[in-house]
Sequence to fold (140 residues):
Amino acid sequence: MTGNKTFTMIKPDAVDNGYIGPILEKITAAGFKIIAMKFTQLSRRDAQEFYAIHKERPFFGELVDFMTRGPIVAAILEKDNAVEDFRALIGATNPAEAAEGTIRKMYATDIAENAIHGSDSDDNAAIECAFHFSGREIFS
Ligand code: CMP
Fold:
């Protein structure tokens, strides 16, 4: 059974480039309902914990620097088949490989500064939503 929630962050590159509005427009036009959202900035500890799965990768330090260098928009999104449909909407990790019309193809810079995050499984969506939002911040 697939879940109906996913977690996203509009990353510091896309915020700095003025793409919050166009990206939210694409998300809602694709049928996702925003049930929680905040404009915030990750601490180094937040970023290290959120991306702990990548801590042995050579790009981990660069990833933490990037994700903490400016504000992000974090949100919980609701739709049937949310995780899979959202990953289709954002496109491949590397924007050079992302399909035409996807968010990363339109707004990402490169594989590191790739504009947007989307949870990769229902289990991780639940963990990531809980990492960023408490129960009373979520409107359902
Ligand atoms: P995302 O897939 O949302 O989560 C892991 C992030 O690590 C990824 O987006 C990129 O921001 C970053 N990343 C992945 N691969 C590389 C890479 N080869 N070099 C630098 N950063 C990367």
